[in-house]
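Hi everyone,

Forwarding the result from last night's run.
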Amino acid sequence: MSLTIRPYQDTDAPDIAALYNRHRDNPNPVAGGITGAQLGRELAERNTALFLVAVEDGQLVGTFGLFHTTGRRTARTGELIADMFFVAPAHRNGLLTGRLFTEAVEWMVGSGCLVLRLTVNPANSVAFRLYRRVGCVSVGRTVPGEDGNVELHNYIPLILRSVFADLGDEAKAALGGLSSFATVAGGRDDELRTDITVLDGARTVAHTLSLGDFRLAACVDVDRGAVRAATLTGPGGSVRELRLTPPPQYARTAVPAAPYRFGEGALSAELDAADGTLRVWADGHHGPVFVSTWPACRAGSEAGWREGEPRDLEITPREAGLRVVERCGEDRVTGEITLVGGVLEQAFTHTRTPGRIFQNVGLRQGYLEYAAGERHPLGTGLGVRDASEVVAAGHEVPAGTGLTWGGAHWTVGLTAEAPLRLVHGTLLERRAVPGADGVSRLRTVFRNAAASTETGPAGTAAAAGAACAPSGPRTLELRVTAGGVTAWKEGAVRVLRSPYPRSRVFGCNPRWTAGMWVTGERGRADRAGGLGWGVRPSGGWEEKGPRALYAPADGTGWEVHAPEDPVEPVRVAVRGRPQGLSGGEPGDRRGAGADEARDTVLWLTPHTPQRTSVVFESAGTRWERDSSQFRQVWADALSLRLTDGGWLHCRPAPGAPRAAELVLRTTSAGLLVGCATPTGTDADWHLSVHDAPLT
């Protein structure tokens, strides 16, 4: 059999789409699959640097891509993002995986982009270990965010290019004879932790590379994208310092700066001076109600909805808004932004076609209405399929179509001035299309739907659905070694699913140990990551009572109150450390203030069938759905049909803070429920089992 690796050709697109559609574990899943045309558009819109395909006897069996942007993120200067790395199952135990990675890295060494970034689900132990084995390191957050991934970096291309001129003939010959970067990197452990060491105030990573009988040691400044120092140890043990060739360009790091603020009354807006991201805030709503990225001077360099590259922006305050200018050589894009009377106006002029604009509606609960009154509850995968992994496969919305998102306190509305895409129910991809006067205009309208209150309606609404509890005694076990509740039964009804006494994978959590536990997470409205997956921190818990645990490392405490009478709900009291007292995650370049919008979350893995009925209250409206129909929903109250019969009700206790919310995620391992409140806010949660759902 003949196996070849070659660059992508346009005629490959249908075969790549078919390959991905055949395998549910492909790296860029989209419900219902994608077409070859969508795959081709995606590669064009990502400003693809290199896309490799592996072909055996005429059949496409593997892919590996290097991109300047993925829609979700945009690479900094000198970096590329690896994605769409996929090998058909029949070839995963051979050499193909290593060959694809090696050829991509070799191409990078000859280019000006020398730092490789990629994301991986840490619960996918095979992929995570592979990336660690070829020298990928963690320099940022070490737990997955809402998207389920952690980011890794590979600096081997940068190191090799920086030292190559001074390696010497023997070491160069040894390097040329290597067939896999797994033998170069020496491998790292597969622990989910940072590889950062701070030296003289700089965040650095140390590498030791094996070049035959030679050992190359290098220290990399990860924020500048440059090698600080390197030494070469010869076969006889002699050590010499290597002269370094500077990189073609240094990476830029955003310099912290106060945002520019404007607006009036219950609405306000702020523009991030580093990358041009616009946020709109509304009284009574937790987190921004609307986020819009900056379009950039040139297509392919636009900011992603999770992250963008630092930019040189000229920002001038104007009446009720701002004037923002970005220059790229002879090219320029100018934005006039105002917020008046609940209307956000964004008007752009440009010398050439700018990049895409991603806009995120920050309502988590409520509905989306479009297409002549068609209304769907808000949730990832509800009404509009989730195309965040392949933006080009998003739902096409024709020009002139009106879209409305309604929540408990605010509605957000717009009319598509030009065709746009719904990437999912609350994420839009828009283009700056000029009108007859040469100006591209985007208009978004915000309306106050109801007066806000200090406490939400969850307690009374959920109580209305109360029904008879199952007969039989209540048993509940909490174990400090597992960090949570390992068993809960109401009579014969199993309420929680737990792996105790083992540790297993659940969704994107590689360390699932209990059926109920508590973690501190990045905030649900955090742009860079969103709410995580309940990965337990390395620090342990202390037992503070029969059913109470305390974590000295971050000051989080929680206690389970389980009355003997099963008619009474189980009450879980969660107490998180106040905001600002704990620093950011290790390696997080945002530093000690990184937790200013964090959440403390009570997690549950309910004992449900793989596919079950779900009833949830979203912004005052009751909805019933099958769990197979969505990926994630936020709610004021939830009911889940359990395996042994009965319904698990979850809700904040009466009097809970307004920002207390529930999130429900569906995974191949089962359902995951998160009960979230802002860190520093005390919250009690009511959990109970009944013979009927919420009404």
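Confidence is low (pLDDT under 50) at residues 451-466, 580-596.

Cheers,
N.
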